[in-house]
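Subgroup meeting minutes
Present: P.N., E.W., G.H.
Scribe: E.W.

1. P.N. recapped why we're keeping a running log of single-chain structure predictions: easier to compare across weeks, and new members can see raw inputs and outputs side by side.
2. G.H. added today's entry (368 aa).
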Amino acid sequence: MKQMFLQQQEHLDDFRRKYWKKLHEFGEQCDDPLPQPAKRCRRISQVELDRACKMLAESVGPDTPPRTWEELTAICALKDWSFLLETQTFDSFLCGFLELVWGCAGELHVDRHYRLRQAQTNGLATYQALLLLRLLLEQGIVPKHSTLEASAFGRRFSAARDGRPEGGREWAFARHWYSTFVDVLTAKIDGSYAWQPGSADLEIAPLPCSLQHYLQTEDKRRATLGVSCWGEWHFTVLRGTENEALAIEFLNNLMSSQKITERALRCAALPTVNAFYEIYKDSACLSLPERADLSLPRMTYGELRQRIFRRARSRADLFDYRHCMRELHGLLERLLNTPDTPASGVGQELIATLGRIKQFEDRELLLH
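Output recorded in log:
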């Protein structure tokens, strides 16, 4: 982003004026009340919105990543950039949306009776997250069929002969898992790296929050640190495994400190062991000498834990995740295919989706 901004540094003041107008426009669009009288939220006043937009616009620049989703949308709309979100796989699309909900100060906690906890507050936050996603889709900021799959990414965004990506539109922001980011950087096709942008200056930034959350919280710095979703892997040994002792020994070896460290330093995975981040706190969290053609993020393991991990959350907090999220995924798919759905229609869809999730309580379950 820094390199792209600096190409037009002399026009930054003019950009800030246009940016303020866009940010104001998008802030109003994402502040609609949920279409159900008992669940209306406090609207952002024009004075609040005006003051916040001016303050954010004055500080936008090459060294300032967007702090709110509305800022990201405004920057991309004015610069003709894209924000890449994985929309083609079930779990990653849902986790990206959960991060939008958390960025609206909401929680998608479903209890054992399939009720959304603190339904009024969290229902509104989920609705606002849907409006943010709709805005990103409607404005074309998130491209249709957006994906971060390594080979598809490489084909679409490698530099063509004229220096522009084959898709015609630059991307400036992407929501990656650590592993998919490494995959994009290292994937090869016919012996050559799939992604060859010509040059790139890459950095890691915390996820934004919503403008409304930014306005309504006193701790602005904490609000804009963002909340990310853990990517979790679970190892299991099937009952009846022929050599159970060997399987357990294999898992114990995989989870030994030596193997955890090896995987981390080879950029295969980020560990969840605190001691690793103490020992290697000053080491770069992304060390890929084979990609010397790129300017890779300079963030260390210590900075990564401090800035990203301390606020990360698990999707395991959702009871019966697969069934509940299947209903939510259906709603996201409909929004993906019809991003021009009016705000009232999005609200009614959400109310209907939460109603279907509540009906799971009455299912007959076959227990083994």
